[in-house]
């Protein structure tokens, strides 16, 4: 079982912590269990909202597949907030050096910066801290006014609720966007927000509606987008006519038919495979096209 280790500092914001914890906790309900662990330099960590939190004080043994996440804390400036001891900063560096992913929410980026993990990388943080952190870490590149940024297994997010977006993004990267869409829906996060990447998944981008019939059809397409899915098959699964399905699907997704939606999923998956070194022909067949011609047409059209 993979672990998510939350590093708690005094004054931690509850939503910075609870949002990602809820995402990874909900993933277990969909077949991807995570062990959630809460560590701190003190056994009791006061939160910004007054609720004391209990933490393990021993750093756990970690695998490169595990995630270490530093939630933010209440502090008007980066200079005046709490900080990790040098030994714990070294553990953040060691986990990343071993191939692990390190993430932060809001002012948690300060801990990553002090550990040297922002140098040479792009990052973001809460808009009120951007200028100060950029000045303190001139070797890092600040990306302003985005929800989250990923750079070489260092993932930073903006503030408070953006930790949910960050965690959903990490689920999508690890297990596929279909799982992230199911978790978002279970959490009633229908308006799943994108990060800085323009190619954020169509599975999530077109889920900002409340039509349960369309959600059920999208669930089916998400799980089987590489297979032939005739409109009649989708309509039967939804319990409506083909004409009704086309009408409600187009209205809910902002103009997409089920076929166009499926093609977007295939295109995005193919683009990912090509980005990982696959040949265009191989990527095309993997996502369900008979050959690369349709994939090339869709890429050119986009």
From TrEMBL:
Family annotation (SUPFAM superfamilies): Class I glutamine amidotransferase-like, Homeodomain-like
Chain segments annotated as transmembrane: none
Every HTH araC/xylS-type domain range: 215-302
Pfam families, per the entry: DJ-1_PfpI (PF01965), HTH_18 (PF12833)
Coiled coil: none
Signal peptide positions on this chain: none
UniProt keyword list: Transcription, Transcription regulation
Official protein name in the record: DJ-1/PfpI family protein
Gene source species: Streptomyces millisiae
Lineage of the organism: Bacteria, Bacillati, Actinomycetota, Actinomycetes, Kitasatosporales
């Amino acid at each position: 079982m993979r672990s998510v280790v939350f590093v708690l500092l005094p004054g931690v914001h509850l939503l910075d912590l609870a949002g990602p914890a809820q995402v990874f906790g909900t993933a277990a309900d969909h077949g991807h269990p995570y062990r959630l662990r809460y560590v701190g330099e003190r056994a009791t960590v006061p939160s910004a909202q007054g609720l004391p939190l209990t933490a393990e004080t021993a750093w756990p043994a970690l695998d490169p597949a595990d995630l270490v996440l530093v939630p933010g804390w209440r502090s008007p400036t980066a200079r005046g907030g709490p900080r990790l001891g040098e030994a714990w900063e070294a553990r953040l560096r060691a986990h990343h050096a071993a191939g692990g992913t390190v993430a932060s929410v809001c002012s948690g980026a300060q801990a990553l910066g002090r550990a040297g993990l922002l140098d040479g990388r792009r990052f973001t943080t809460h808009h009120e801290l951007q200028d100060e952190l950029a000045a303190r870490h001139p070797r890092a590149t600040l990306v302003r006014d985005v929800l989250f940024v990923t750079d070489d297994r260092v993932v930073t997010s903006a503030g408070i609720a953006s930790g949910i977006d960050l965690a959903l993004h990490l689920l999508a990267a690890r297990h596929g966007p279909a799982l992230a869409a199911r978790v978002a829906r279970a959490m009633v996060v229908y308006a799943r927000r994108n990060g800085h990447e323009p190619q954020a998944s169509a599975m999530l981008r077109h889920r900002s509606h409340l039509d349960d019939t369309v959600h059920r059809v999208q669930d089916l397409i998400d799980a089987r987008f590489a297979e032939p899915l005739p409109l009649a098959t989708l309509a039967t699964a939804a319990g409506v006519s083909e004409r009704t399905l086309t009408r409600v699907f187009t209205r809910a997704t902002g103009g997409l038919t089920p076929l166009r939606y499926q093609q977007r999923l295939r295109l995005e998956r193919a683009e990912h495979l090509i980005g990982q070194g696959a040949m265009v022909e191989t990527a095309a067949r993997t996502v369900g096209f008979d050959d690369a011609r349709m994939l090339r047409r869709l890429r050119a059209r986009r």
